[in-house]
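Human: Respectfully, please carefully check these tokens:
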Amino acid sequence: MAGKAETWRDGLLARLQAQYQAQFPRSGQAHARALRSLVDGGSHPQRLYDPYAFRAVAAQGARLRDLDGHDIVDYWQGHYANILGHNPPVVTEPLAAALQGGWGLQTGLPEEAESDLAELLLRQTGDERARFTTAGSLATMYAIMLARAYTGRLLVLKIGGGWHGAHPLAIRGVRYGAQGLGGVDSLGVPDDGVAQTLVTRFNDLDALHVAFRRYGDSIACFIIEPCLGNGGFIMADPEYLRAARELTQRHGALLVIDEIITGFRFAAGGAQRLFGVQGDLSTYGKVIGGGMPLSAVVGRAEVMDLASKSSSKRVLFNGGTFSAHPASLLAAKMNLQHLAENAAQIYPRLGELGASLRAGIERAFADHGVLARCTGGPNEAVTASSLIQVHFPYREDACLDCPEMVWDPQQSDTVLREQVLRLGLVLRGVNVSHGLGAISTAHSEADLQHTLEAFDWIAGQIAEARA
């Protein structure tokens, strides 16, 4: 169990860091330069790690090339956005042609491409209205604002461990701390704003019913991911998502389904449709942008129309200067068209690769006597999944069905997952986040074999260090 000093782990981590610094010296120099002008040397904490992150100079398909000339199989894939791999020609070629033809940078005017994309997105999701913005954080913020305006209520119910972006309406209960998954995650958030965000346990039907019994008539919305991203790539129990739909309807609240990660990841549309549930509002991002900055809020017309300038109680959903950016619209259109037209081949194949890699990773650790478990696997609703996280629970019978089990250091070794595994794998030419990440259509059987060899190596290092 956790709690006692893990000197073997500290020693292993120190050795890996020393090897990393020797193997990635030019990235080290680039990091030292970045520290002089950038906070922590970068603009997103998930891209930064100790002693420093390598610097990519090229990206194509499943692979990256860095400043030191390493060829690296990548599963981070642009924050899980690049389902077709890095810079897929189906997106880059039309973009290049548009830019060469004098179109693609910001105009600040309506574009026909915006209607093209909205119609395609709504056709695939079954929703009635859409509005675009640039980031997932903005999309979820606007969705919550719309829900509050529509219901006339203020309370927001969310999942402990669920991440919906760094904005004051949802930045509570994300990080595991002294309060478990119920604390405030950032300074600078007003106390009254935090008090209006309630946190409940994922996949806990009893807790969900209690929350609605106590607060149901004051809840504006329940916001939930069909598969938790930050919370461990844990799938929603179909019964839980159906209960969420029934309880929100019964109490006059809105169901907001956050599909920033899951949208177009498991099917050519929202994961919610695989569960047989439709949100009143839903948010999409990552995959839909085709590698460009784009997100969307979609949903029922009567709710979405509160963003209209003609609404008597208008929600100021302005989206930002670069909302519906021309190049983003084109990239998204080409990407979603490709996914929709080839869904019958793409998603089953991604599911096969996911199942193969999950089984191979667990087997590699088991061969060295190390207990490891993969999340992200399918259930009765999502039958093919290309998401994988790797965890190190302390008990063989541990059930990884909620974020507490993968983030509580008394239940699972988070240092092995977040630090040892990341450094060890990149030393062997594999880039991961939270244990692995997302498989793309560009990943080949050879890439997976190389990945499993890297896992076998780090599993051996762990077993040797703790012997």
In short: Residues 89-341 form a domain with the Aspartate Aminotransferase; domain 2 fold (CATH 3.40.640.10). The chain has a mean pLDDT of 96. The longest strand covers residues 219-224.
